[in-house]
What we know:
The structure holds 2 protein chains of 2 kinds.
Chain A: H1 5-8, H2 15-43, H3 45-60, H4 63-78, H5 81-96, H6 100-130, H7 132-147, H8 150-161, H9 165-176, H10 178-189, H11 193-201, H12 206-240, H13 249-258, H14 261-289
Helix pairs in contact in A: 2-8, 3-6, 4-5, 4-14, 5-14, 6-7, 6-9, 6-10, 6-12, 8-9, 9-12, 10-12, 11-12, 12-13, 12-14, 13-14
Chain B: E1 9-18, H1 22-30, H2 35-42, E2 45-55, E3 60-64, H3 71-78, E4 86-91, E5 94-95, H4 101-110, E6 112-115, H5 127-131, H6 133-137, H7 142-155, H8 171-184, E7 189-193, H9 201-218, E8 221-226, H10 229-235, E9 238-243, E10 246-251, H11 253-258, H12 263-269, H13 274-277, H14 280-283, E11 290-291, H15 296-304, E12 310-315, E13 318-324, H16 325-333, H17 341-344, H18 357-366, E14 371-374, E15 380-384, H19 386-404
Parallel strand pairs in B: 3-8, 3-9, 6-7, 7-8, 11-12
Antiparallel strand pairs in B: 1-2, 1-4, 4-5, 9-10, 12-13, 14-15
Helix pairs in contact in B: 7-8, 12-19, 15-16
Amino acid sequence: MADASWLTKFPAMERADLVALRKAMDGGYREFSRTYGDAIESFFDPLLMFLVWFEKLLLGAPWVVVLAVLVGLTYAASRSWKLSGLVLGAFLLIGYFGMWADTMRTLSIITVATLLSIALGIPIGIAMARSDRVQAMVTPVLDIMQTMPAFVYLIPVVMLLGIGKVPGIIAVVIYAIPPVIRLTNLGIRLVDREVLEAATAFGANKAQRLWNVQLPLAMPNIMAGINQTIMMALAMVVIASMIGVKGLGQPVLKSITNQYFTLGLLNGLAIVAIAIMFDRVSQAYAKRSQKHLESVHGD
Amino acid sequence: MATDQDPQIRVENLYKVFGTDPHSVMPLVHEGLGKDDLLARTGHALGLKDINLDIQKGEIFVIMGLSGSGKSTLIRHFNRLIDPTEGAIFIDGVDVMSLTQKELEDFRRHKMSMVFQRFGLLPHRTVLENVAFGLAVQNAPKTERNAKAREWLATVGLEGYEDQYPSQLSGGQQQRVGLARALCTDPEILLMDEAFSALDPLIRSGMQDQLIELQDKLHKTIVFITHDLDEALRLGDRIAILKDGALSQVGKPEEILLNPADDYVEAFVRDVNRARVLSVDVVMQPPQCRLTTANIDDALKQMRGWKEDYAYVFHDDEYQGVVTQDALEEVCEKPDRNPPLHEVAKEGPVLQPDMALQDALPATLECEYPVPVVGEDGEYQGTLSKEDMVEVLANSNEETSDKEAPKVA
Lengths: 299, 409
């Protein structure tokens, strides 16, 4: 130990020890997935069934009907003919360039992933807002979820559930859920103290305060979170295609490996079109539902 | 069993300490450690110190203090938005600390309601829904609560605004919504936390008038918080002055104005326009020099026994006017000397007991003798002289400047 090599060379763990550690952990996890994999998979069966049903619905229905519903929903949410016309044009182009089926698949997985993120994220956000301790525990987890490269958590998901729709959607939800959780938490914490106090003073219980005061007043922030979640889910589509999620991501992946520039560009633009549609529609809806905040008394 | 004599709200030995472990520092507080020392030594803030209060049914009780005096903390103890560190609060004889969560919610729904400084309205609900909020929390049927809400909106003068959102209303209108919301559950007790402080002066005095007018009809128990002494004097049946979490003085407005308990209260009342706040009956002198006889000789006899050379003539319990000794003697010297006294009396100014001093000022100054104060029923209640007036209106400044100089630590 007399030489000073530890100064120039980091005193790392022995190679053999590292290998042993990795083997032990991987072996342990493999063992876990072998034992419980089936059980966990069957736990997600209802989700898979819903996903398959929804995709079949979008793919099976005549394209005219699907297009009419999409444009109708856009108008219902935004009350804007301009936006509705844009959506109509974008989807006509998508269909014309032969990307209709892939777009429908992507649309279905994004919709399900978003619904799942909202269903899980808002309750978690509420729990965080209610208790500082929960917030202190969840925040670092969210940080990890947002900074950990997506490929890394694809590995255990695939090990556990194999390749397919369900692991794909889990990966998308893990990647996309943090904004809705964070902004739900933030939104509720920012609710005017006096309004909440007023509700309490009139004898509102916890549930009444949540539904009548906290959630409605936090809604602008929650909607911003949902919007972010949708955008992140769309960004994840390409990565999720690596583990067998069909849709617009797969042609993009194929274009990277084969250097098909135009194919990549077209599919990429289709993703952008969907993203813009979701973004504008959800924002227009949020703005419309918060209209009472804008009309300020003029004096 | 609560009788009429029992106070509606009773606060006993109430202490509130803010910090991580309030109970651990209570011994120090009981030893008399001050607010600043406590904060420096333990990091705990003393919010309220040994508060004892009785608030009677149907009175407007004003709690006044500057910001940081603990007044908002105190009012939040009444409906337990804040729990005390030590002490007890009884509402109609019930210890509110003994209530379970469910009972507490019920108590807040029916017994008392609150009006907030920045209104605390729900921005996403219409004015009507806001007013009906208290009833909605009680799960009252929609038609019933909307009908009641409409009624109260009309009472506060906001008919036609039902479907507006709060942000479309001016500050004064919003606070009327807040007031209507508080009244809509028909509570016995109304807590008003700086309810008018965020409003423009003109609108504020309008709201004060409206509150007084409403109170004449409703007879609620109102606890009103303010930092504005003029507001306190105008609204309060009784006033409590809070300083650094402790009560300095509790009393009727005129008691506080005329007999401030300590330097702090005195500094407070120094700038008050007494002429506007005080009424004649508070400062008038006891009645004297009253003549009821009709006979001038008797009257002269009586007057010679008095120091003053004037007297007030009453006939059939009605004030007739004033006579001077000289005038009477002159009448006596005339050959025809039998007119009844009340025909000789010279008519002069009269004051009503509930007049503000500023309204009584001109008559008092013009008159050479003290002006008699006569009630509505013709009862002679007292007199008010120039000198009385000057003393009351001027002494506020003299006295305080004397006392202010050497302050004993």
